Amino acid sequence: MPCCGQCAGIEKEFNAKIAARELAAYRRRGVRGTTKALIALLQQARVDGATLLDIGGGVGAIQHELAAAGIGQITSVDAAPAYLEAQKAEASRRGYAGRVTHLHGDFVAIGEQIPAHDIVTLDRVICCYPDMRALVERSAERARRVFGAVYPRGTWWNVVGIALVNTLMRLRRSPFRTYVHPPGQIERILGAHGLRLTAAKETLIWRVAVYAR
Q1: Rounded to whole angstroms, how far apart are CA atoms 135 and 1?
Q2: pLDDT > 70: what percent of the chain?
Q3: Surface-to-core class of residue 2, CB atoms within 10 Å of its CB (0-12 exposed, 13-18 middle, 19+ buried)
Q4: 74 alpha-carbon distance from chain centroid
Q5: Are 182 and 161 spatial neighbours (Cβ–Cβ below 8 Å)?
Q6: Which positions ≥6 away from 22 have C-beta within 8 Å?
Q7: Cα 13 from chain centroid?
Q8: Which member of 12, 74, 167, 201 lies 3.0 to 4.6 Å from 208 by CB, making a disulfide possible if both were Cys?
């Protein structure tokens, strides 16, 4: 499945070297930071036997941790092939590879082909996609019960910081860009799809939020 220009940038930025380094760090230290916070909030819902759609899951920390907590079938969609390979390697090492379907591509482009799942997660993914509305709407449509996300807070320092990151990307001739999409707009879109905020935590940079029907 061909990717959009942004997804091509994701493939370049999140390559095999980066994926190997992140997987080694995960194996050494376990899940950390906002990903750990999101998993803790998700585990307050019923995960045993539930299905998971993990969009842009990196090396698969959410998948691995929730699989250990009893989650059932998992679908992983990622624009970075190196991350999918890291996910497969770790799922195989942990003995649950048969429960996971891995799909490479732009979720907005292929999302209609993916069935609804009990839980949908986007950990630091909304900030990597230019068309926030399309991404949030399509992923919300696939969430039967719970929607979990980590995305930047709408602060001035995030806006400035991301502008600097994007300047660096332009200087490096990379098509990859990052975004601070208005959190209020994200929540309004989710609300229009029947998802209401049930739990949230914030750091200086990130908002960790779980929504449910």
Answers
A1: 17
A2: 98
A3: exposed
A4: 13
A5: no
A6: 58, 59, 86
A7: 16
A8: 201
Q: What is the residue type of 196?
A: R
Q: Give me the CATH number covering residue 191.
A: 3.40.50.150
Structure-token pair, residue 39:
């998993």
DSSP 138: H
Does residue 151 sit in helix, strand or coil? strand
- On whether the CB atoms of residues 203 and 151 are closer than 8 A, the answer is no
Is the dihedral angle over the CA atoms 5, 9, 15, 21 positive or is it negative?
negative
pLDDT band at 2; cut points 50, 70, 90? very low
Structure tokens at 90: 């770790």
Residue pair 183/154 in contact (Cβ under 8 Å)? The answer is yes
Q: Which domain holds residue 85?
A: 5-212
Q: Are 138 and 105 in contact (CB under 8 A)?
A: no
Predicted confidence band at 90 (pLDDT cuts at 50, 70, 90)?
very high
Nearest partner of 182 among 156, 163, 147, 212, judged by Cα: 156
In this predicted model, what pLDDT tens digit does every residue of 124-146 receive, in sequence order? 999 999 999 999 999 999 999 99
DSSP at 126: G
Closest CA to 211 of 62, 82, 8, 38: 38
Query: What is the helix (H) or strand (E) element at residue 100, kind and residue range?
Result: strand 100-104
Q: How many domains does the chain have?
A: 1
